[in-house]
Write a structure and sequence with these properties.
The chain is built from 6 helices and 7 strands; from the N terminus they run E-H-E-H-E-H-E-H-E-E-H-H-E. The chain is of the alpha/beta class. Helix 4 links the parallel strand 4 and strand 5. The longest helix is centred in the C-terminal third of the chain and has 20 residues. It is globular, with a radius of gyration of 17 Å.
């Protein structure tokens, strides 16, 4: 059975930096991937676009949508924007229901989102708590419920910009060597945050070093790090 991976980010570019390789690897192996942006990051994550005289919110959203859609396509994924607003991202009952239904509709095997702490970005922890709660609602905590549910997806957190300050402890490295050029091409579409392209290319090399040391596999040249939240269920160790 092919794997289904869903990445939900607070802003429209979050997925490409932190999980672009994992998305492309899933698709390469015959799986399906969907990228969901809770907001476009139009207010707090589009600094380069706001340097243009006469810029508007709607135009920034349009550009961010085009960038994210093109980046997702490079990775073989579909892109969906919920357009719930950013800086501050605020999740009430109605917004939570939208996120939960988005998870139900795609029914992922693996769900990826932000860490629960980020002292530099007020929206990222809000996204974590929303996605974590929406996942439980979509799955009914794995038991029969009075509403439609899906099989509980595994929950992973992607690596934040400064992991040491965000309670991020990597438990899983994904070898993205075979798809790294696709990730690089996807990152190149994000012109509103072009300065991050070099950083995350270097980060993939750093994590590959850790992956080689952890596995002994010297063929790993690029990797992404993730933190597993839900315990893994196996028949043997």
């Amino acid at each position: 059975m092919s794997r289904r991976i869903q990445v939900i980010g607070a802003h429209s570019a979050d997925f490409v930096w932190r999980a672009g390789g994992a998305i492309a690897k899933t698709v390469e192996l015959g799986g399906k991937a969907e990228v969901v942006a809770i907001s476009y990051g139009e207010r707090g994550e589009s600094g380069e676009l706001w340097k243009v005289e006469g810029q508007t919110i709607e135009n920034v959203k349009r550009i961010r949508h085009q960038e994210a859609e093109a980046a997702a396509a490079e990775l073989g994924a579909t892109f969906r924007a919920l357009d719930l607003g950013d800086y501050p991202l605020q999740i009430g009952a109605q917004e939570l229901a939208v996120i939960a239904e988005t998870i139900r509709e795609f029914a992922p095997d693996v769900l990826i989102t932000h860490t629960d702490t980020d002292p530099f970005n007020p929206d990222h922890p809000v996204a974590f708590h929303a996605v974590d709660r929406a996942r439980s609602l979509a799955a009914g905590a794995g038991v029969q419920s009075a509403f439609r549910t899906i099989r509980p997806p595994q929950l992973f957190l992607f690596e934040p910009h400064q992991p040491e300050l965000c309670n991020f402890v990597p438990t899983t490295f994904v070898d993205i060597t075979s798809v790294f050029e696709r990730k690089r091409a996807a990152m190149a579409h994000m012109q509103a945050q072009a300065y991050l392209q070099t950083y995350y290319a270097q980060r993939a090399e750093h994590r590959a070093n850790h992956a080689r040391r952890a596995s002994g596999n010297q063929e790993v040249r690029y990797a992404e790090a993730f933190q597993r939240v839900i315990p893994q269920v196996v028949t043997e160790l």
